[in-house]
Specification:
Layout lengths: L4 E6 H11 L14 H17 L3 E5 L7 H5 L12 H16 L4 E2 L6 H14 L3 E5 L13 E5 L8 E3 L1 H8 L6 H9 L14 H11 L2 H6 L6 H9 L1 H11 L11 H4 L6 H11 L2 H8 L6 H7 L22 E2 L6 E4 L3 H12 L3 E8 L9 E9 L2 E6 L4 H10 L1 H4 L5 E4 L2 H9 L9 E3 H8 L7 H9 L1 E2 L4 H4 L13 H28 L3 H21 L1 E3 L1 H26 L8 H11 L18 H8 L3 H20 L12 E2 L2 E3 L9 E3 L11 H4 L5 E2 L5 E8 L2 H10 L2 H8 L4 H10 L8 H14 L5 H8 L3 H14 L1 H17 L1 E3 L5 E3 L8 H38 L4 E6 L2 E7 L3 H13 L11 E6 L2 H4 L1
Parallel strand pairs: 1-2, 1-4, 2-3, 4-5, 7-14, 8-11, 9-12, 12-13
Antiparallel strand pairs: 5-6, 9-10, 10-11, 15-16, 15-19, 17-18, 20-24, 20-25, 21-22, 23-24
Helix pairs in contact: 1-2, 2-4, 4-13, 7-8, 7-11, 13-14, 19-24, 20-23, 21-23, 24-37, 25-28, 27-28, 30-31, 30-36, 30-37, 32-33, 33-34, 34-35, 35-36, 36-37, 37-38
Length: about 950
């Protein structure tokens, strides 16, 4: 490895990049710190150290206050938002981590980080170093040479980009790297508020440079230009010269490259461990620090020093865990229970308990396919009993039956983590877990709906205890083995810890639920629902594979026909599944006007939103969208669904996620039912594959009508909305009549369609820009529409304002049932982050109440089905819809009961609740 490889990191640029990478999925730890920018920076740094193995390294930061550029041009960067509060909090952590890595931080008053990096790069280049400037900032291209490169970190799994002279010339479409400055001087830079020359963008700038070589050459030959371009070049010549000065990276900063200072040294692992512990970076800590001294050798190889000594064999292992406690330093007694006598003794012991922590160990993640490897019980902290279960399924069922009297005894509370999984596993062994449970995952979900809810994370944050990762037992990737192949001793320790920690978590979680006044919601809604979902998952739904096979052939023909059309319209063959090739064909070959920014890799964006805007005027684009639709339907649903049929039941058993959406909404996976298309005919056809179990049954679908709009009316008490729903009017038509000022009967289909978009968009916080895009109207017209909407719906506007104010005052919002969502960014100084929190504040009470409502209905319906001992089953929940596999003689009774329970789920509402129903031989017919 070259011993003269210098990596210079632009600290602020990398932190900002990481911050906005996590903007829509913030990583908030238990202390309320948004760690996204820290996580992203550390991952980038570690990836660089691990894979590039630099000999020398430093991180540059911008100084506080302005720089020499502000003295030249006070408006420089004046349009930027204030630094996000989360970055202000993150910066000290990032700098502490850099220091713990023994990496020098360089910062010079009055100069930006790029000036400092540029100066060091040029100095070290002369001393024979190969230099990599680690930054996402395109302006660094002006510094690239044969020995100085831009290093753009990986993003979205796309790998790193290392840009040399050739790549910079191609990217900028220029002939010399110093022309980067000329381009910036001509076009300006809106991010840094560098003005440039109006009317000159990147293409025009490069075209002019090809003819006149430099900005100065263009200004000197302005008389050779024509029209508005000539006028602007002459008028704004001084502004262009100023812009070039502002865009030029200063390589004469008063700082000297010190090779010894920048040499990479071993990190201070203990300090890193302390910081990672505070930030709750368990995964990063394991990756970077290792779990014990066996990783030390790797670390010393990665961070070489002048003298490398092997640790003494007598040296005890050094733990670098996040939490202070773990299985190695906490006294515990985990027993293996084998043989009939020992099992009966354990059953007798458990029968005397009022609460038991219970967990299963299995051979896989699918509870209906996985085999039981063992059961584990804990009744007091630091003690557990592991019961191994053999591979022979007859013997396994025999052992499971010994515990039937315990697990089905409703007087004993079962404590578990995601206990729905264990309930499904045990049901295959003829043991039906009762519903008197405490689920730590669901408890933590209610306490912190925006955080993670895995047992290791909850243990880390609430008990300061670092659990054994399952990868230590079964490995991962291609080398992963089955739990059945792990030694009994290892499984005993792992399983015992699971049950033990779960038991210990009950008390603090229950206390927290009561503190935040959500115990009632937990006990009365989420816990009963867990059993309902388990029964629905176990029941499953019949899928017709023959129908899907035939429909797959139909879709393939549509794909082939559409492909031929596209090739004819394009005049050439290309890969229609390649966004890059699609962009080149549409916008280079066919010269269709492109009015958006290119992607970070300088490619045309061909996402659905942009292509849809162009589809009405260009048939080939509409055909490409159709092609994408057909291929996605075929691969994602039609061909995939038959592979998900359980070979033992002949049905598909989706898995419902009860602890994922912060609003309280359910989601599902394997398959994801929520994503099965319904808005287009080709997508709707897929629902024909979902059928009743036999000819004696029929599908019943019951769907809340416009439930979220009705709940908006209920919560906001907007008079017009309430009256419209009470009168039974078409609400979207009524809205159109009011907003457009026309009689109800004279509303046009376009006006109604626009009103429908407005109703769903504005009530969820969409602004004029978003609305103009959805409606295809000018932004000014969209703004007028929003203003008029709020004049007409003054109650709704008051609700939105009051809700945001409540969130600011209390730090959370809640549903009608009391479900809380904590909004830590509601007072953020960053307008983008704050606006996002405000939208959450408005949306959550509405979406969350709708979620609570259908959950209540599901619980009530499940109880009634059980009480009446009907053969009919509830089998699916999708959005605001419930689907039932109904025994035909019970149809009228079940239908009436379902509608009644759904309507009355939230009693005493002022707004009427409407439930639409349908029946059919398949889901599409019933919907």
């Amino acid at each position: 490895m070259d011993d003269k490889r210098l990596f210079l990191l632009d600290g602020h640029a990398l932190i900002y990049r990481a911050h906005f990478a996590f903007i829509n999925r913030p990583l908030i730890n238990s202390k309320g710190i948004n760690t996204g920018s820290i996580t992203g920076f550390v991952r980038t740094l570690w990836d660089l150290l691990n894979n590039q193995k630099p000999s020398h390294i430093a991180v540059a930061f911008d100084p506080k206050g302005g720089t020499f550029r502000n003295e030249i041009y006070p408006e420089y960067k004046a349009n930027r938002d204030a630094q996000p509060e989360d970055i202000t909090i993150a910066l000290p952590y990032v700098k502490s981590i850099i220091e713990a890595f023994k990496i020098p931080i360089i910062m010079v008053d009055n100069y930006e980080a790029d000036d400092v990096i540029g100066t060091i790069a040029k100095q070290s280049e002369k001393e024979g170093y190969t230099v990599y400037m680690v930054t996402p900032d395109k302006d660094y291209g002006q510094l690239v040479s044969d020995k100085v490169f831009m290093y753009k970190p990986s993003r979205s799994g796309n790998g790193i980009d290392i840009l040399g002279v050739k790549e910079i010339l191609e990217t900028w479409d220029i002939e010399r790297v110093d022309q980067v400055i000329d381009v910036l001087g001509l076009q300006g830079d809106s991010v840094d508020n560098i003005p440039g020359i109006p009317g000159i963008g990147p293409k025009t700038a490069t075209k002019l440079l090809k003819e006149f070589d430099s900005l100065e050459g263009i200004l000197a030959n302005a008389d050779k230009l024509s029209g508005k371009q000539k006028e602007n070049v002459i008028t704004y010549a001084d502004q262009a010269r100023l812009s070039k000065v502002l865009a030029t990276i200063n390589t004469e900063v008063p700082i000297t490259f010190d090779a010894l200072k920048y040499q990479l040294d071993p990190p201070d692992k203990k300090v890193l461990a302390e910081i990672f512990k505070e930030l709750e970076f368990r995964t990063l800590a394991t990756q970077i620090l290792g779990d014990n001294s066996s990783q030390i050798g790797v670390q010393q190889e990665l961070f070489p020093s002048e003298v490398t000594q092997k640790p003494s064999p007598a040296t005890p292992p050094i733990q670098y865990s996040i939490a202070k406690k773990n299985i190695e330093n906490v006294d515990h007694t985990y027993h293996v229970v084998k043989g009939v006598a020992e099992i009966l003794d354990l059953v007798e012991k458990l029968s005397r308990e009022k609460e038991i922590s219970f967990d299963t160990e299995t051979t896989g993640l699918d509870p209906l396919l996985a085999q039981l490897v063992g059961m584990v019980f804990s009744v007091k902290p630091h003690e557990a009993y592991y019961v191994p279960v053999p591979a022979n399924q007859d013997e396994a069922r025999t052992i499971a039956q010994y515990f039937k009297s315990i697990l089905e005894n409703n007087s004993i509370q079962l404590i578990g983590q995601n206990i729905k999984y264990d309930a499904l596993v045990m049901r295959k062994y003829n043991v039906v877990l009762h519903d008197h449970i405490f689920d730590t995952m669901l408890a933590h979900y209610l306490c912190e709906p925006d955080l993670r809810h895995k047992l290791d994370y909850i243990s880390e944050t609430m008990l300061d205890y670092h659990m054994v990762p399952i990868e230590e037992l079964i490995g991962k990737g291609v080398k992963q083995i089955s739990m059945r192949d792990v030694s009994e001793q290892k499984v005993k320790e792992y399983a015992g810890e699971d049950a033990d920690i779960t038991l210990q978590l009950k008390s603090p979680l229950k206390e927290k639920l009561k503190d935040i006044e959500m115990w009632k919601l937990y006990e009365g809604l989420e816990i009963p629902l867990s059993g309902v979902l388990a029964r629905m998952e176990y029941e499953g739904v019949r899928i017709n594979p023959e129908f899907l096979k035939n429909y797959s052939h139909e879709l393939q023909k549509l794909i082939d026909d559409t492909e031929k059309l596209i090739y004819e319209e394009a005049g050439l063959r290309f890969n229609i599944s390649s966004p890059k090739q699609v962009g080149e064909v549409l916008f280079d070959h066919l010269k269709i006007p492109y009015r958006w920014k290119k992607t970070a890799t300088k490619q045309y964006s061909t996402d659905v939103e942009k292509l849809t805007e162009l589809s009405e005027d260009h048939k080939i684009i509409n055909d490409i969208l159709e092609y994408r639709k057909y291929t996605k339907l075929k691969s994602t649903y039609v061909d995939a669904l038959p592979t998900m049929i359980n070979p033992n039941t002949g049905r598909v058993h989706t898995s419902y996620n009860q602890a994922r959406a912060a609003t309280g909404r359910l989601s599902s996976e394997n398959p994801n039912l929520q994503n099965i298309p319904i808005k287009n005919e080709a997508g709707r056809e897929i629902r024909k594959a979902f059928e009743p179990r036999d000819r004696d049954h029929i599908l019943l679908a019951a769907d809340y009508s416009q439930i979220e709009l009705r709940l908006i009316a209920e919560i906001s008490k907007d008079e017009f909305m309430l009256e419209s729903f009470k009168a039974g009017n078409d609400f979207h038509r009524a809205t159109a009549a009011k907003v457009y000022g026309v009689p109800y009967d004279d509303v046009t289909p376009t006006q109604r369609r626009n009103a429908k978009t407005v109703n769903f968009s504005i009530t969820y916080g969409a602004g004029s820009t978003n609305l103009s895009r959805q409606l295809g109207i000018p932004r000014s017209e969209a703004k007028d529409l929003i203003d008029n909407y709020f004049v007409q719906f003054s109650g709704l506007k008051k609700y939105m304002d009051d809700t945001v104010e409540f969130a600011r005052k209390n730090g959370y919002v809640e549903t009608m049932m009391g479900r809380k969502r904590f909004l830590r960014d509601i007072d953020s100084r960053n307008s983008l982050i704050r606006s996002n929190a405000e939208r959450m504040a408005i949306n959550t009470p509405i979406q969350g109440t709708a979620a609570d409502m259908i959950k209540i209905a599901m619980i009530d319906i499940d109880r009634e089905l059980t009480k009446q001992q009907w053969q009919s089953k509830m089998i699916l929940q999708v959005h605001d819809e419930l689907v039932f596999d109904v025994y035909k003689p019970e149809l009228d009774q079940v239908k009436n009961m379902v509608v009644d329970k759904m309507k009355k789920a939230l009693p005493n509402l002022e707004v009427p609740i409407v439930v639409d129903t349908g029946i059919g031989e398949n889901w599409l017919e019933a919907h």
